[in-house]
């Protein structure tokens, strides 16, 4: 039956192997692999009004995307968001992880509190920050006696959103770094202490280099997920917010076109742009990993 | 030296306390606001921090308007079904990918990796069309659907099996176990901690997911917490005591679960490698 004969043992493993992976494989193919191609296929079609009809238009959607100022603006917004959220959250999380990676009083309590936003529904986070930052009745403006339009000034709204993003993701990054720190043998630090290295020095000369694979990995995954920012912007920015056009992200546009306006063709095209961006970053990661990262 | 050490330690605590306060203040504000009256929240001169009277009216109204029991039930069902499906399929596949040699394995594993590399939004339009063609919009099945298998989970369990020693299987084989028995009785029980990690990861991901429930669900009988809160915000734009009360009711159960199962949470998240 097969050109190469399999021994009973191999046959056995072949059979069991496929039985074991089949449920996952069927699920993956139906839910993920085929949809990738369907979405790309969809991006060559124009959807009629109210989501009816599908007309092949070739590259028209892509031409439209490239000429669409709204899309370009959303790309800029997304990048602005990522450029603040990723480095700031990573730096703070790194310092916190280093501080908490020792026996000390209250360690668990600090860790629990810092992680708290991660177990909170995004809608609740958005609502409470909207309220805290409310320009008239908000806590921040009234306590500090300032009058800043945190969320409706088109110049600063996107950075405010990025800082809320930082607030909600720090705990998560910190846990990832703490896990990485567990793998650094304690004798490295002991040796450094004997050599007279203080906390700061051992942070920069031991922690950072030895943690670099972990830092790098967290960086890449954070950039990729910052490019997909949606919940926060969708929940915080009203349709009537004057800063909406300066804050809406690529995925926000994708959602708006695909599911609010039912323009599936254009929505698909936008998400293909996101796919390409993500793949570029992944390629950079694979290339850079070989070059920069210090592996033990 | 000792003195310097304790000075350092005080300094560290100060930093950590400042960060912790920054984390907690929005939650405290949520609690304080939920007990105020609307007019208290709209008062700026003087600015009201603590409510004059701790009123529970906002909670009562919100409980009447939104059926939280149903929302909890729907959220729990979605999470449970996703966990069951994910953990079973990922354990099986993870074992095969880590420990068995068979034709087609590498190709199949490439599909797992591809799924992990592309942004999830690329699946949404076809997934939505599938659910809508099957006539299953506004059902629990629709909520569970995209989370039935997990490429990340498969990868996680594969790593877990790869770290187990080889001789376990050989001993089982000598005792006359076939591959299925070896997996079920010897190997699978040893990866329990990874299964728990995957379960927690799946639960958190499902709980926080907003876009998919909004896409497939507009009926209030099958709605989940995340999308119900989002919808509520649109309806009660300025009634902040009510918005905060609803947020609190939606948030507290997960926080309690987290505080109780903290150790497992932290471990589960630590293995997620930034995929959340």
Strand neighbour order, sheet with most strands of chain A: 1-2
Count of DSSP-assigned helices of chain A: 12
Main pleated sheet of chain B: none
- SS class of chain B: mainly alpha
Report the mean per-residue pLDDT of chain B as an integer: 90
Rg of chain B (CA only): 24 Å
Averaged pLDDT of chain A, please?
89
Structural domain tally of chain A: 1
Protein name (chain B): Sugar ABC transporter permease
Organism (chain B): Candidatus Epulonipiscium fishelsonii
Organism (chain A): Candidatus Epulonipiscium fishelsonii
Protein name (chain A): Sugar ABC transporter permease
Overview of the molecule:
The complex is a heterodimer of chains A (296) and B (276). Chain A has 296 residues and is mainly α. Chain A has a single domain (60-292), classed as MetI-like fold, CATH 1.10.3720. Chain A is built from twelve helices and two strands. Chain A has helices at residues 8-42, 60-67, 69-100, 107-115, 122-132, 139-144, 157-182, 186-194, 199-227, 231-236, 250-260, 264-292; strands spanning 45-47, 54-56. With 276 residues, chain B is an all-alpha fold. Chain B has helices at 2-34, 38-41, 57-65, 68-99, 105-117, 121-133, 140-144, 151-162, 167-174, 179-187, 192-208, 211-216, 225-235, 240-260, 262-270. Chain B starts with a helix and ends in a 6-residue tail after the last helix. Chains A and B meet through helix 1, helix 3, helix 4, helix 5 and helix 6 of A and helix 1, helix 4, helix 5, helix 6 and helix 10 of B. Chain B: This is Sugar ABC transporter permease. Chain B: It comes from Candidatus Epulonipiscium fishelsonii.
Question: Top keywords for this entry?
Answer:
A: 296 residues, mainly alpha, MetI-like fold, two-stranded antiparallel sheet, B: 276 residues, globular, Sugar ABC transporter permease (chain A), Sugar ABC transporter permease (chain B)
């Amino acid at each position: 039956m097969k050109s190469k004969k399999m021994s009973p043992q191999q046959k056995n493993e072949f059979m069991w192997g496929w039985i074991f992976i089949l449920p996952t494989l069927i699920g993956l193919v139906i839910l993920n692999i085929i949809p990738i191609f369907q979405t790309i296929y969809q991006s060559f079609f124009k959807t009629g009004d109210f989501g009816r009809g599908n007309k092949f238009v070739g590259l028209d959607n892509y031409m439209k995307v490239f000429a669409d100022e709204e899309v370009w603006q959303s790309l800029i917004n997304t990048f602005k968001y990522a450029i603040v959220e990723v480095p700031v959250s990573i730096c703070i999380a790194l310092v916190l992880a280093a501080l908490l990676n020792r026996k000390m009083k209250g360690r668990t309590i600090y860790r629990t509190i810092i992680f708290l936003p991660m177990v909170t529904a995004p809608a609740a986070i958005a609502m409470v920050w909207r309220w805290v930052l409310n320009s008239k009745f908000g806590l921040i403006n009234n306590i500090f006696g300032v009058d800043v339009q945190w969320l409706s000034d088109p110049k600063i709204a996107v950075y405010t959103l990025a800082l809320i993003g930082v607030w909600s993701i720090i705990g998560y990054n910190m846990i990832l770094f703490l896990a990485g720190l567990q793998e650094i043998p304690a004798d490295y630090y002991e040796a450094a202490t004997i050599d007279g290295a203080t906390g700061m020095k051992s942070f920069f000369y031991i922690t950072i280099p030895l943690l670099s694979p972990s830092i790098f990995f967290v960086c890449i995954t954070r950039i990729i997920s910052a490019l997909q920012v949606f919940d926060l912007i969708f929940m915080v920015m009203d349709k009537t917010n004057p800063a909406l056009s300066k804050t809406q992200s690529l995925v926000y546009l994708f959602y708006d076109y695909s599911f609010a306006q039912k323009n599936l063709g254009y929505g698909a095209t936008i998400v293909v742009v996101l796919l390409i961006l993500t793949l570029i970053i992944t390629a950079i990661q694979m290339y850079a990993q070989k070059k920069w990262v210090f592996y033990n | 030296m000792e003195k310097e050490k304790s000075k350092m330690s005080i300094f560290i605590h100060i930093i950590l306390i400042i960060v912790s306060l920054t984390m907690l203040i929005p939650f405290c504000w949520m609690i304080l606001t939920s007990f105020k009256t609307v007019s208290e929240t709209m008062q700026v001169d003087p600015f009201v921090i603590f409510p004059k009277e701790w009123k529970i009216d906002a909670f009562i109204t919100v409980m009447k308007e939104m059926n939280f029991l149903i929302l909890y039930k729907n959220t729990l069902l979605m999470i449970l079904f996703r966990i069951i499906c994910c953990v079973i399929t990922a354990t099986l596949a993870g074992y095969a990918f880590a420990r068995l040699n068979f034709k087609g394995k590498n190709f199949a594993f490439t599909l797992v990796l591809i799924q992990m590399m592309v942004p999830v939004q690329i699946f949404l339009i076809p997934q939505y069309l599938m659910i809508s063609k099957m006539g299953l919009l506004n059902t629990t099945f629709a909520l569970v659907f995209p989370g039935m298998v997990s490429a990340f989970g498969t990868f996680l369990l594969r790593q877990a099996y790869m770290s187990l020693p080889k001789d376990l299987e050989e001993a089982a084989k000598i005792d006359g176990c076939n591959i299925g028995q070896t997996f079920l009785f010897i190997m699978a029980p040893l990866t329990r901690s990874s299964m728990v990690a995957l379960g927690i990861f799946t639960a958190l991901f499902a709980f926080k997911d907003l876009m998919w429930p909004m896409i497939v669900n507009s009926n209030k009988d099958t709605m989940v917490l995340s999308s119900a809160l989002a919808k509520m915000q649109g309806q009660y734009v300025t009634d902040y005591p009510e918005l905060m009360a609803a947020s609190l009711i939606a948030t507290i159960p997960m926080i309690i679960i987290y505080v109780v199962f903290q150790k497992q949470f932290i471990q589960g998240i630590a293995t997620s490698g930034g995929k959340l």
